[in-house]
Backbone:
Protein backbone atom coordinates (compact mmCIF):
# COMPACT_ATOMS: atom_id res chain seq x y z
CA UNK A 1 0.00 0.00 0.00
CA UNK A 2 1.21 3.49 -0.84
CA UNK A 3 2.48 5.74 1.93
CA UNK A 4 1.57 9.43 2.13
CA UNK A 5 4.11 11.64 3.88
CA UNK A 6 3.67 14.94 5.70
CA UNK A 7 5.83 17.05 7.98
CA UNK A 8 5.10 15.91 11.58
CA UNK A 9 5.08 19.44 12.89
CA UNK A 10 5.50 23.04 11.78
CA UNK A 11 5.42 26.38 13.53
CA UNK A 12 4.29 29.68 12.08
CA UNK A 13 4.18 33.16 13.58
CA UNK A 14 0.87 35.02 13.75
CA UNK A 15 0.42 36.80 10.44
CA UNK A 16 3.10 34.69 8.82
CA UNK A 17 3.01 32.17 6.02
CA UNK A 18 3.71 28.44 5.96
CA UNK A 19 3.48 25.63 3.43
CA UNK A 20 2.56 22.08 4.35
CA UNK A 21 3.41 19.36 1.86
CA UNK A 22 2.03 15.95 0.98
CA UNK A 23 4.15 13.38 -0.81
CA UNK A 24 3.59 9.92 -2.21
CA UNK A 25 5.82 6.87 -1.92
CA UNK A 26 4.84 5.92 -5.48
CA UNK A 27 6.22 9.06 -7.09
CA UNK A 28 4.96 12.49 -8.02
CA UNK A 29 1.56 13.60 -6.77
CA UNK A 30 -0.75 14.44 -9.65
CA UNK A 31 -4.31 15.53 -10.20
CA UNK A 32 -5.20 11.85 -10.52
CA UNK A 33 -4.57 11.48 -6.80
CA UNK A 34 -7.33 14.04 -6.07
CA UNK A 35 -5.40 15.65 -3.21
CA UNK A 36 -7.52 16.66 -0.23
CA UNK A 37 -6.62 18.65 2.87
CA UNK A 38 -8.46 18.36 6.19
CA UNK A 39 -8.22 20.43 9.33
CA UNK A 40 -8.84 18.90 12.75
CA UNK A 41 -8.91 20.81 16.00
CA UNK A 42 -8.71 19.08 19.40
CA UNK A 43 -11.91 17.27 20.29
CA UNK A 44 -13.51 18.00 16.93
CA UNK A 45 -14.24 16.03 13.81
CA UNK A 46 -12.11 16.79 10.75
CA UNK A 47 -13.43 19.20 8.18
CA UNK A 48 -12.48 19.49 4.54
CA UNK A 49 -10.46 22.59 3.65
CA UNK A 50 -9.31 21.82 0.11
CA UNK A 51 -10.37 19.21 -2.43
CA UNK A 52 -9.00 18.19 -5.83
CA UNK A 53 -5.72 20.07 -5.36
CA UNK A 54 -7.01 23.61 -4.94
CA UNK A 55 -10.80 23.82 -4.63
CA UNK A 56 -12.22 25.36 -1.49
CA UNK A 57 -15.41 24.72 0.41
CA UNK A 58 -17.63 27.63 1.34
CA UNK A 59 -16.23 27.63 4.87
CA UNK A 60 -12.57 27.58 3.88
CA UNK A 61 -10.90 30.85 4.85
CA UNK A 62 -9.35 32.70 1.92
CA UNK A 63 -5.93 32.56 3.59
CA UNK A 64 -5.71 28.81 2.80
CA UNK A 65 -4.78 27.66 -0.69
CA UNK A 66 -3.87 24.36 -2.28
CA UNK A 67 -1.52 23.57 -5.13
CA UNK A 68 0.93 21.10 -6.62
CA UNK A 69 4.47 22.09 -5.71
CA UNK A 70 7.16 20.12 -7.42
CA UNK A 71 6.24 16.47 -6.94
CA UNK A 72 4.00 17.07 -3.95
CA UNK A 73 0.65 18.54 -3.05
CA UNK A 74 0.87 21.63 -0.90
CA UNK A 75 -1.32 23.58 1.48
CA UNK A 76 -0.26 27.20 1.96
CA UNK A 77 -1.47 29.36 4.79
CA UNK A 78 -0.87 33.07 4.32
CA UNK A 79 -1.56 35.36 7.27
CA UNK A 80 -1.81 32.74 10.01
CA UNK A 81 -4.34 33.29 12.77
CA UNK A 82 -4.32 31.75 16.27
CA UNK A 83 -7.41 29.73 15.35
CA UNK A 84 -5.43 28.00 12.59
CA UNK A 85 -3.52 26.00 15.19
CA UNK A 86 -4.64 22.45 14.44
CA UNK A 87 -3.71 19.12 12.91
CA UNK A 88 -3.78 19.05 9.12
CA UNK A 89 -4.16 15.85 7.15
CA UNK A 90 -3.72 15.33 3.47
CA UNK A 91 -5.31 12.48 1.56
CA UNK A 92 -4.41 10.98 -1.79
CA UNK A 93 -6.39 8.43 -3.76
CA UNK A 94 -4.54 5.50 -5.35
CA UNK A 95 -6.71 3.82 -7.97
CA UNK A 96 -9.71 4.91 -5.96
CA UNK A 97 -8.42 3.84 -2.57
CA UNK A 98 -7.91 6.81 -0.22
CA UNK A 99 -4.79 6.99 1.94
CA UNK A 100 -4.27 9.61 4.64
CA UNK A 101 -0.96 11.15 5.48
CA UNK A 102 0.24 11.02 9.07
CA UNK A 103 -0.78 14.61 9.71
CA UNK A 104 1.04 17.86 10.43
CA UNK A 105 0.63 19.54 13.80
CA UNK A 106 0.66 23.25 13.07
CA UNK A 107 1.51 25.58 15.93
CA UNK A 108 0.85 29.33 15.65
CA UNK A 109 3.34 30.96 17.95
CA UNK B 1 -27.17 21.18 6.03
CA UNK B 2 -25.49 17.79 5.95
CA UNK B 3 -25.98 15.88 9.19
CA UNK B 4 -24.44 12.52 9.97
CA UNK B 5 -25.23 10.82 13.26
CA UNK B 6 -23.20 7.77 14.18
CA UNK B 7 -24.26 5.21 16.76
CA UNK B 8 -23.51 1.67 17.87
CA UNK B 9 -20.08 2.12 19.40
CA UNK B 10 -19.13 0.60 22.72
CA UNK B 11 -16.92 -1.85 24.55
CA UNK B 12 -16.44 -5.25 22.94
CA UNK B 13 -14.14 -8.16 23.69
CA UNK B 14 -11.42 -9.24 21.25
CA UNK B 15 -12.90 -11.54 18.65
CA UNK B 16 -16.32 -9.99 19.09
CA UNK B 17 -18.62 -8.16 16.70
CA UNK B 18 -20.28 -4.76 16.55
CA UNK B 19 -22.44 -2.91 14.03
CA UNK B 20 -22.12 0.82 13.59
CA UNK B 21 -24.90 2.90 12.08
CA UNK B 22 -24.88 6.35 10.52
CA UNK B 23 -28.13 8.19 9.95
CA UNK B 24 -27.82 10.78 7.21
CA UNK B 25 -29.93 13.85 6.50
CA UNK B 26 -29.74 17.18 4.74
CA UNK B 27 -28.84 15.78 1.31
CA UNK B 28 -30.12 13.30 -1.26
CA UNK B 29 -28.69 10.11 0.19
CA UNK B 30 -28.98 8.09 -3.02
CA UNK B 31 -26.75 10.54 -4.89
CA UNK B 32 -23.63 10.11 -2.79
CA UNK B 33 -21.08 7.55 -1.83
CA UNK B 34 -20.44 7.13 1.89
CA UNK B 35 -17.32 6.30 3.88
CA UNK B 36 -16.09 5.24 7.29
CA UNK B 37 -12.86 6.65 8.68
CA UNK B 38 -11.33 5.86 12.06
CA UNK B 39 -8.92 7.51 14.44
CA UNK B 40 -7.18 5.58 17.19
CA UNK B 41 -6.67 7.52 20.44
CA UNK B 42 -3.97 10.13 19.93
CA UNK B 43 -3.29 8.95 16.39
CA UNK B 44 -4.01 10.05 12.85
CA UNK B 45 -6.88 9.36 10.49
CA UNK B 46 -7.25 6.00 8.74
CA UNK B 47 -9.69 5.46 5.89
CA UNK B 48 -11.64 2.24 6.48
CA UNK B 49 -14.30 1.66 3.85
CA UNK B 50 -16.54 3.25 1.22
CA UNK B 51 -19.71 2.34 -0.64
CA UNK B 52 -21.24 3.74 -3.82
CA UNK B 53 -24.93 4.80 -3.90
CA UNK B 54 -26.19 1.59 -5.44
CA UNK B 55 -24.45 -0.45 -2.77
CA UNK B 56 -23.03 -2.65 -5.48
CA UNK B 57 -19.48 -1.34 -5.20
CA UNK B 58 -17.62 -1.39 -1.92
CA UNK B 59 -14.05 -0.59 -0.95
CA UNK B 60 -11.99 -1.63 2.09
CA UNK B 61 -8.65 -0.87 3.64
CA UNK B 62 -6.35 -3.89 3.77
CA UNK B 63 -6.40 -3.71 7.57
CA UNK B 64 -10.12 -4.53 7.72
CA UNK B 65 -10.72 -6.53 4.55
CA UNK B 66 -12.51 -9.79 5.29
CA UNK B 67 -13.56 -8.63 8.76
CA UNK B 68 -15.65 -5.50 8.12
CA UNK B 69 -18.65 -5.11 5.82
CA UNK B 70 -20.13 -1.80 4.73
CA UNK B 71 -23.73 -1.56 3.58
CA UNK B 72 -26.47 1.01 3.16
CA UNK B 73 -30.25 1.19 3.39
CA UNK B 74 -31.76 3.82 1.13
CA UNK B 75 -35.16 3.53 2.80
CA UNK B 76 -33.61 4.60 6.10
CA UNK B 77 -30.90 6.93 4.73
CA UNK B 78 -28.46 4.94 6.81
CA UNK B 79 -25.05 3.43 6.22
CA UNK B 80 -23.71 0.60 8.34
CA UNK B 81 -20.36 -0.90 9.24
CA UNK B 82 -20.53 -4.49 10.43
CA UNK B 83 -17.33 -5.28 12.28
CA UNK B 84 -16.31 -8.81 13.25
CA UNK B 85 -13.21 -10.58 14.58
CA UNK B 86 -12.38 -7.36 16.34
CA UNK B 87 -8.86 -6.74 17.59
CA UNK B 88 -7.36 -4.34 20.09
CA UNK B 89 -5.94 -2.32 17.20
CA UNK B 90 -9.49 -1.64 15.97
CA UNK B 91 -10.03 0.57 19.02
CA UNK B 92 -10.80 4.02 17.62
CA UNK B 93 -13.29 6.79 17.09
CA UNK B 94 -15.19 5.83 13.96
CA UNK B 95 -16.39 8.68 11.74
CA UNK B 96 -19.08 8.39 9.10
CA UNK B 97 -18.63 10.66 6.11
CA UNK B 98 -20.47 11.69 2.99
CA UNK B 99 -18.30 11.51 -0.12
CA UNK B 100 -18.20 14.26 -2.71
CA UNK B 101 -20.13 12.43 -5.38
CA UNK B 102 -21.71 9.13 -6.42
CA UNK B 103 -18.49 7.58 -7.68
CA UNK B 104 -16.27 9.04 -5.01
CA UNK B 105 -14.50 7.17 -2.23
CA UNK B 106 -13.04 10.22 -0.52
CA UNK B 107 -14.77 11.50 2.66
CA UNK B 108 -15.91 15.09 2.42
CA UNK B 109 -18.50 15.91 5.12
CA UNK B 110 -18.03 14.29 8.50
CA UNK B 111 -20.09 13.17 11.48
CA UNK B 112 -18.92 13.49 15.08
CA UNK B 113 -17.94 9.86 15.49
CA UNK B 114 -18.74 6.89 17.69
CA UNK B 115 -16.14 5.27 19.94
CA UNK B 116 -15.29 1.59 19.66
CA UNK B 117 -13.15 0.02 22.37
CA UNK B 118 -11.90 -3.53 21.94
CA UNK B 119 -10.68 -4.87 25.26
CA UNK B 120 -11.10 -7.80 27.60
Residues:
Amino acid sequence: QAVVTQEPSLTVSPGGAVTLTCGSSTGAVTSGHYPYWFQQKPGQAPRTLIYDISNKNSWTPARFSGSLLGDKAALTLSGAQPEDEADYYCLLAFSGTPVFGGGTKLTVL
Amino acid sequence: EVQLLESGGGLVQPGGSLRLSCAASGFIFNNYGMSWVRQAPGKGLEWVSAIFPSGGRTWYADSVKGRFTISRDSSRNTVYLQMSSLRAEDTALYYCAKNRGPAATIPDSWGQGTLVTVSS
Summary: The first strand of chain A starts at residue 4 and ends at 5. The mean pLDDT of chain A is 97.
